[in-house]
Specification:
The complex is a heterodimer of chains A (180) and B (280).
Chain A: E1 2-5, E2 20-29, H1 32-41, E3 51-53, E4 58-60, E5 63-66, H2 80-84, E6 89-92, H3 98-104, E7 109-112, H4 118-123, E8 125-131, E9 141-155, H5 162-178
Parallel strand pairs in A: 1-2, 2-3, 3-6, 6-7
Antiparallel strand pairs in A: 2-9, 4-5, 7-9, 8-9
Chain B: H1 2-26, H2 30-42, H3 46-65, E1 77-82, H4 90-106, E2 132-137, E3 141-145, H5 150-153, E4 157-161, H6 169-180, E5 188-195, H7 198-208, H8 218-228, E6 243-251, E7 258-265, E8 272-276
Parallel strand pairs in B: 1-2, 5-6
Antiparallel strand pairs in B: 1-3, 3-8, 4-7, 5-7
Helix pairs in contact in B: 1-4, 2-3, 6-8
The chains are: A alpha/beta (180), B alpha/beta (280).
Chain lengths: 180, 280
């Protein structure tokens, strides 16, 4: 098991799609609205080596109660500028589009966390701060300290993409079984 | 006296609804846990096994701490059976809605219910037609809840097949899963409604999700095998189990029709039932 700690650097370039890793350190949650706000007003945290988590957590009394990943593909067209600014990893579920695969090339990785595992994620988290709180609980940018979150490298920095490979193989299987 | 009896029944139904949601949201039914454990044991892909480990640890942690298993706590779907002594009234529906509001406040659940066009959130998981309540006659008053998350529900699909296409039902189900890929959070439970009408097939597909998943008929197993041959695997990362189970419900249909509906359910197949004692 490879262990990563933020801020991330060139070690992410050594990862390959399918690698199992754990991540500790600081992550920033961001969904659709937070990405749009950051585009307009700038990134409120230091993006160098930072990690963005596609997640709308349930937060109560300064604690993270549930923080599973949301569908990353909604951020396909919203991720280029944060990678340009120095963000090295995106965390989410379901994979991302070919444009993100290209934007990650030579710079960063996409890490998959298990969908629905909101309680497990919360158990490995400490809340540190918040930006854009006016966007509401789900859409705000929460600064969270992670302790060994278990992740899979879904897209690496060399064009390797586990999700698109799985879909390619699934299409072949479907054709063989039903269209011959 | 009659009023008191009525409010007593309403209170009991609201309380049973709350209690069923509490169990459904913070634990996973035994049959589903067994199916997950079996799938983990058979899994050949190391990546897929990590996903099963995460799911199991997540369920354990949620149950220990009384937390929702998933942050998408779903929309409230409720099935009632009513004995002959309990009339189907607006009061009864209000009581179910009250149980949903209490569950939203106290568990707590994420307020997910919005107006479809204005997208305005009611804040308490109720609205026009929500909770979605389905009523059938029975011997006892029972409340069964099926909180339904959006990720999987959004991948559901219905087809009006030709009567000559009974042999293509497995293809239609597998195609539904192929289109969905990793989006509905596999490993999935697939509720398949066959026959009835356009709307009836969809209702049967959802009811099929209430059936225990640790047993399948030969027909269900064949469809399940066809889905698993795709290799999409847990979370779309590849693996042997894309579907934990396929459950089929059928209804009589027009001789010129073959409606087939697939209601997609993520691994968090959450459901719970409460009996309500009815005072004579």
């Amino acid at each position: 098991m490879i262990h990563l700690t933020t801020p991330l650097g060139d070690e992410v370039l050594e990862l390959r799609a399918g690698d199992a890793v754990t991540l500790s350190g600081t992550v920033y949650t961001a969904r659709d609205e937070a990405h749009q706000r950051m585009m307009q007003e700038g990134i409120p945290f230091d993006p160098q080596g930072a990690v963005v988590y596609h997640c709308g957590p349930v937060v109560q009394d300064g604690r993270v109660l549930a923080a599973g990943p949301t569908t990353s593909a909604r951020m396909n067209r919203l991720s280029g500028f944060i990678l340009d600014a120095g963000v090295r990893a995106l965390i989410g579920k379901g994979g991302m589009g070919p444009e993100v695969r290209e934007e990650l090339r030579g710079r960063g990785v996409y890490l998959a966390f298990t969908g629905g595992c909101a309680a497990l994620a919360a158990a490995r988290m400490t809340l540190k701060g918040v930006y854009f709180e006016d966007l509401g609980m789900a859409e705000a940018v929460w600064e969270i300290e992670l302790d060994h979150l278990p992740l899979i490298v879904g897209i690496d920095a060399h064009g390797g993409d586990l999700f698109s490979e799985v879909v390619r193989q699934a299409k072949i299987q479907f054709e063989q079984r039903f269209n011959t | 006296m009659i009023e008191r009896a009525a409010s007593g029944l309403s209170g009991a139904v609201a309380s049973a609804t709350y209690s069923a949601f509490l169990e459904a949201e913070t634990s996973i039914p035994t049959d589903v846990r067994r199916a997950l454990a079996r799938a983990r044991d058979r899994e050949q892909s190391a990546t897929a096994r990590t996903q099963f480990e995460n799911i199991e640890e997540n369920i354990r942690y949620a149950e220990e701490h009384g937390l929702p298993v998933c942050q998408d706590t779903g929309v409230p779907i409720v099935y009632l059976t009513l004995p002959p002594t309990v009339p189907f009234t607006h009061d009864l529906l209000d009581a179910v809605a009250e149980g949903v509001r209490r569950a939203t406040r106290e568990i707590p659940l994420r307020p997910n219910v919005v107006d479809p066009l204005s997208r305005e959130n009611s804040g308490d998981n109720t609205g026009a037609g929500m909770p979605a309540v389905h009523v059938t006659p029975g011997d006892e008053l029972t409340v069964t809840v099926l909180p339904k998350g959006a990720g999987a529900e959004n991948c559901s699909r219905i087809g009006m097949l030709l009567p000559s296409q009974t042999g293509e039902i497995a293809r239609f189900v597998a195609e539904t899963v192929l289109i969905a890929g990793g989006r509905p959070c596999p490993p999935l439970v697939l509720g398949v409604g066959i026959g009835s009408t356009f709307d009836g097939a969809a209702a049967l597909a959802k009811e099929a999700l209430l059936l225990p998943i640790d047993e399948m008929t030969t027909f269900e197993q064949e469809i399940c095998d066809a889905v698993n041959a795709l290799g999409i695997g847990p979370m779309g990362l590849g693996g042997d189990t894309t579907a934990l189970a396929v459950k089929v419900k059928t209804g009589a249909c027009h001789t010129a029709s073959l409606p087939v509906a697939v209601n997609v359910q993520c691994w968090a197949c959450r459901r719970a039932t409460r009996c309500v004692e009815v005072e004579e």
